[in-house]
Structures are given as structure tokens and as C-alpha cells.
Amino acid sequence: MSTYVVGDLHGQFSLLLDLLRKVLFDKKKDRLIAVGDVLDRGSRVGDLLFFLHEASREGWFLSVKGNHEESFLRFRSGESLSWYTAPEFGGGVTLSFFQDVSETQARILEEWIASWPLVWSSEKFLVVHGSLPPVAGTALGDHELCETRIAGSGGGHECLELRPPNLYPSWDGRLVVSGHTIVRKAGFWHDGIALVDTGAYRTGVLSAFCLETGQFFRVSGIPV
After folding, report:
1. End-to-end CA distance of the chain
2. What pLDDT score was predicted for residue 153?
3. Distance (Å, rounded) from C-alpha 58 to C-alpha 223?
4. Which of 173, 207, 208, 219 could form a cystine bridge with 6, CB 3.0-4.6 A?
5. Which backbone phi and psi does 95 adopt, to 5 degrees?
């Protein structure tokens, strides 16, 4: 069994399929974990959501929330977030998809996205979108702070917004795997932190990290 943590997808359905083929992904044995920001920007958000929702029902996919999922849920709940529909944030494509599906489909998918946790944890690893919030007075983070730390005037969770240099390894020594910050090549940022977002929606490069082997994988293509 192998567990692959994939970087920010932003609707890049074709690149994900290419990546699964490259690693010879076996749905009966392997698992895929997304670091969040599955939504927005890419034109195939709908195809991606249908595919991953079925994958979650089959038991081989899960995702943590990203700042784009949190923003989508806040917008859908009625908050006035003018920046969500701005072209640079890219929420319009997701909203268009939800308007085109039935009310039942929209409700099922929205409830599923709302169920995504802020952090996924195992004995040796933690997956979070941005970073673990820091423990006061230290340079170490704690995943248990994610639920309680709100980031400034934006009103979102701090763990979804943090970027370098404000990335914090876990106090208990578990490896933290994060997205959110686009890097040229997926790899280790510092001891205890791995970054896997290679900006697929912009660069056409989608990356993943295998928890069991410590290997990084990437595929390249044309983002849509």
C-alpha cells in the first residue's frame, strides 16, 4: 500500500489522471490525500469533484480543506466575500459548476467539502494546507491549534493562510506535508516540512509525495 499526498489541484483533472497513471496507482491498495485547494481556477473543477467524490465513497481518496474550500463554503453560506469571484482568486468557475448541477447534487458535494478536516494525521505524518499554527514562544507548530486560530481580518483559519517564512514543523517530530505555497520543485523546505504545490493551474506541473517511500513525483502538461 502507498499513500500519495498531491499538491493543490485547482480543477486540473487531466493532470491528476496523468499522475495516477505515472505512479501506477492501485485503487484497491493505495490512497490519495489532497492538501486542499481542489476547487477554483481550473475549467474542469466539476469533472474533478465528481471523480474525487466517487473516490472518497470507494475509500481511496480524502482531502484536507484549503483556503479556497473555506472561502467557497463561506461564500455559499452568505458571507460577502467580493474577492472570491475575482479572476485572480478564481471562484467563479466553481460557482458556475454548482449552478449547473441539480440542487441535490450541489447539496451532496457541498456537504462533502464541508466535512473535509483542517488536518489529516497519522503516527508519522501530518497533512495541512498551509502550516501548523505556531506554539507561542517557539518555532514549532501544533495541529491542535488549527481549529482555534483565526487569521486576522480575513476571518479564515490560520493554518490555511500561512506561507514562508512562517512555516512551522510539528512539536512532536511528525513530518508536515503542505501545499498553498507554490514552489518550483516539490521537496523539503526545512527539516520536518515538505512542500508539494508546484502551481499546477499555472505551471502545468502537478506533484505528489509518497509517505511510505519519501519519493516525490511530478507530471507536466497543459493546464486547463
Report:
1. 31
2. 63
3. 27
4. 208
5. -65, -40
In the predicted structure, residue 139 carries a pLDDT above the cut 90 = yes
Q: Characterize the bridge pairing of strands 205-210 and 3-6.
A: antiparallel
Q: What is the pLDDT, as a whole number, of residue 152?
A: 67
Tens digit of pLDDT for each residue in 147-160? 999 986 677 899 99
Residues belonging to the chain:
224
Alpha helices, DSSP H, located in the chain = 13-22, 45-58, 67-76, 91-100, 103-114, 200-203
pLDDT, tens only, 82-129: 999 999 999 999 999 999 999 999 999 999 999 999 999 999 999 999
Q: Between helices 67-76 and 91-100, what is the axis angle to 10°?
A: 50
pLDDT for 62 equals 98
Q: Residue 183 is placed in which grid cell?
A: 514552489
Q: Which 8-state DSSP code applies to residue 111?
A: H
Domains defined for the chain, CATH in brackets: 3-128+179-220 (3.60.21.10)
The answer to whether 126 touches 120, Cβ cutoff 8 Å, is yes
By the 8 A CB rule, do 23 and 210 touch?
yes
Report how far residue 203's alpha carbon sits from residue 223's, in angstroms, rounded to the nearest whole number.
7
CA dist 28 and 6 (Å) reads: 18
What's the mean pLDDT when you consider all of the chain?
96
The packing angle between helices 91-100 and 103-114, to 10°, is 140
- Cβ pair 159, 35 in contact under 8 A: no
